[in-house]
């Protein structure tokens, strides 16, 4: 196995110390703030020791198979809110209605897995009833930003031949625009009901929940003639766990503890392009 260590900064003495904990036989710099520690053996005790040391040093780590290539995968599947982008769109829409605290509290509880997603989405969208639909464009224009490293990651992923899927419990107003802006291959999310230029407080059709996200990843993989084992799946909340669970590599990005604990890789400090350092 290789142990990848990376951070916004990375002191070589700290890297050497953590590599020693893992019994690395060689340390290879990937760039100024990322290092590949080769020849490590993954055990529970080693993982615990590395986890504690990296948290203290504000470093991200990942144990990966030696020789793993980005081109070994066929699909990159990403959650949108707080993963590919920095905001929760529904919270920012609610802010236009003066309801951000109420909606944000439901969002946080759902992401921690404390409220079932369908219930949480229904409750949050209901609070938006009567809001002028122009608020959606304002959120897109004024508040929506890509997460750090997103464009670098996508450029490398496309160059390696992977297809890209944006699958979200958010709304098509945003996923469709991001898909077009970034040249993504697929997008799937919820449709807000709008009548006479105002939100009705409902969504149209089935809700894109954890089950639907998993089914979407599986469906796109089948269309590509492969299995979910050929997918890298990225997310941050409990609603992402099912689709992350069927992927060949699951990546928790600045995620809730329940998600970090179950993911293959957790990126807490570096940007989305930190995933590129995991591959040869």
TrEMBL record:
Keywords: Amino-acid biosynthesis, Hydrolase, Magnesium, Metal-binding, Serine biosynthesis. The keyword Transmembrane does not apply. Its cofactor is Mg(2+). Its EC number is 3.1.3.3. It is an enzyme of class 3 (hydrolase). CDD domains: HAD_PSP. Pathway: Amino-acid biosynthesis; L-serine biosynthesis; L-serine from 3-phospho-D-glycerate: step 3/3. Gene3D superfamilies: 3.30.70.2020, HAD superfamily/HAD-like (3.40.50.1000), Phosphoserine phosphatase, domain 2 (1.10.150.210). It catalyses: O-phospho-L-serine + H2O = L-serine + phosphate; O-phospho-D-serine + H2O = D-serine + phosphate. Pfam families: Hydrolase (PF00702). Belongs to the HAD-like hydrolase superfamily. SerB family. This is Phosphoserine phosphatase. It comes from Actimicrobium antarcticum.
